[in-house]
Amino acid sequence: MIGRVTQQTLQRSTLANLQLNLSKMSDLQAQMSSGKKITKPSDDPAGTAQALSLRAQNRATTQYQRNAQDGEAWLTTIDTAMQTSVTTLRRVRDLVVQSGSGALNATGREALATEIEGLRDSLLGQANTSYLGRSVFAGSSNAGAAFRVDSTTTPPTYTWTGSPDASVQRRLAPDTTVRADADGSAFFGDGATSVFTMLDDIAAGLRAGTDVTSKLDDIDTRTSSMLGELSNVGTRTNQIKAAQSNNALALQDVSTRLSGVEDIDLAQTVVELQMQEVAYKGALGATARVLQPTLMDFLR
Predict the structure, then answer these.
(1) What Cα–Cα distance (Å) separates residue 264 from each residue in 31, 51, 73, 99?
(2) What is the pLDDT of residues 103-113, one digit of tens each?
(3) Bond from prior residue into 155 cis (ω within 30 degrees of 0)
(4) Which tens digit of pLDDT belongs to each residue from 239-253?
(5) What confidence category does residue 298 fall into, taking pLDDT thresholds of 50, 70 and 90?
(6) Which segments constitute the Flagellin N-terminal domain (predicted)?
């Protein structure tokens, strides 16, 4: 059975095709203006899911990169404080060796004792170094200073306020973390075994006129321990720099993949838009012919 085609049917079909062409041209213009081929999830559901996954990966990697930068800043601050402390302790050793020459009188020994106490204060200042208001030698402790001094005792007591189990960690990758602080008790000692107590003993010995060269072995032991901790900080710094390099490559890779999913091919889109414009103009011409007949045309 042959269906009847009326003028209204023909008009309705022509207008529907015209609207379809106009919709396609609108989509292409939206892609051109935004530079993205996915302007809404329905444009490409699979591509949308992939883009969301890549964006989540990009955000995570960016956070890892910020963590690495913060960790590097912590370790750089620690490295500077440690190197300064080692240099200070070497100066103390030179003074102790000088005191053993036998050519110093009481005034000279007092001068050496005063200088050593000044070096002790310098070491204490380095031990209480902070970064952004947080002590770098006390882990996650909120005590404010890594070492607390009790001057009511003779000699003064130096107490480390941190905890070996409360370190500052920075995550560099989903399964990789690095320690960003340093153990102040391992580097400077704690209580009676601290480098500060040792320097107090040396200063007191100089004032009492005793031979303090026996402390050289203690100084060398502490210096060796400091250098070991300094080496550990260098190892962690290298680990962070390697992570930064890996994260930078990962970010570049994710950006490239995301661009492949979302970004348009500009040349191809321009060609498609021009073709659609030609089709739309043709549809307008056909529509003009379909809508041209009037009542007078039928009466003829």
Answers:
(1) 7, 14, 40, 79
(2) 788 899 999 99
(3) yes
(4) 999 999 999 999 999
(5) low
(6) 7-140
In a domain, 181, yes or no: yes
Residue 146 neighbours by CB distance under 10 Å: 28
The answer to the question of residue 64 being in a domain is: yes
Phi and psi dihedrals of 131, rounded to 5? -130, 120
Question: Domain for residue 159, yes or no?
Answer: yes
pLDDT band at 33 (very low <50, low <70, confident <90, very high): low
Q: Which helix (H) or strand (E) holds 61?
A: helix 45-99
* Beta carbons within 10 angstroms of residue 168's beta carbon: 20
Question: 197 or 100: whose pLDDT is higher?
Answer: 197
Spatial contact of 202 and 116, defined as CB atoms under 8 Å apart: yes
Residue 147: enclosing H or E segment and its boundaries?
A: strand 147-150
CA distance to 1, 7, 8, 196, per residue, from 4 (Å): 9, 10, 11, 106
Instruction: Return the bridge partners of 134, or none.
Output: 131
Structural domain count, the chain: 1
Residues 6+ apart with CB under 8 A from 294: none
On whether residue 288 sits in a domain, the answer given is: no
**Could you tell me the pTM of the whole model?**
0.78
Q: Inform me whether the pLDDT recorded for 4 exceeds 60.
A: yes
Q: How many CA within 13 A on the CB side of residue 215?
A: 27
Task: Pick the closest to residue 118 from 141, 88, 142, 152 (CA basis).
Answer: 88
Tokens 């302790």, located at residue: 89
